[in-house]
TrEMBL record:
This is Protein kinase domain-containing protein. Residues 27-39 have a biased composition (Acidic residues). It comes from Sphagnurus paluster. The lineage of its organism: Eukaryota, Fungi, Dikarya, Basidiomycota, Agaricomycotina. InterPro entries: Kinase-like_dom_sf (IPR011009), MAP_kinase_kinase_kinase (IPR050538), Prot_kinase_dom (IPR000719), Ser/Thr_kinase_AS (IPR008271). Residues 1-45 are annotated as: Disordered. Belongs to the protein kinase superfamily. STE Ser/Thr protein kinase family. MAP kinase kinase kinase subfamily.
Amino acid sequence: MNGLEPQGDTLGDTLPQGFAPMKLMSDSDEGEDKGDDGPDVVTCRGGFESSPDWKRWIKGALIGAGSFGKVYLGMDAENGLLMAVRQVELPTGSAPNQERKTSMLSALEQEVKPLKNLQHPNIVRYLYSSLDDDVLNIFLEHMPGGSVAALLRDYGAFEETLVENFVRQTLEGLHYLHERDVIHRDIKGANILVDNNGNIKISDFGMSRKVYESSVFWMAPEVVKQIAHTLKADIWSVGCLVVEMLTGEHPWAQLTQMQAFFKVKKHRLQAKPTNTSPHWFFFETNDTL
């Protein structure tokens, strides 16, 4: 996927990693069972406000999963554009489930709407969304380098110069969001994505409206308490991101989620990592936190 060159004359030889040979689906094939040979070719239907009338894409490898569903590598079947496709499964079956589905779609639509208007070098670009049977597809810019959290797992803690670079870009993206009164609420390594040139972009800002257990380690006290909070909550999380990048572990790594919950709730700060420059931890006494 990173600088691959064709190694043969067949489609299977030249497709990016994560894809397999397949047959494009024609209109007459839409109702046929395609079996397990190759990836799915999906024709996106309308019905979600931001959907195109139709769009065909090839579903590739699973590249992520979390509270908001699974994320797959996708490729536009017409122009070859690689995308990250977040799939959110919707309720099916009974009448109550249909009501839940309608309510869920309405809420998701309200969360997706603002994404269309966000354009910044440090914000993952929203492409479009579509409703395909009982799955909502949200198509986003693909970041081939993966997340900061994944890079930390693969390469270990970052040097301070790299941390400075990533923090600067994160703050520039946050400044853009904050100017538009958008609070991210879930800044952490898993939501900071990297391209092949070391540029970073913030993701999942349109879906960050609820408190999730896995994010407690990065959350500001007011977010953990689920009380009114301001843009400052994101700055606390940036401080936690700094700890994550400098140490290779999330804040309070020695604690369980529940133990960290009570620590953060009492406004306790992560201890300063050793062997780091003093200027990183000015925020230990900063009243804004």
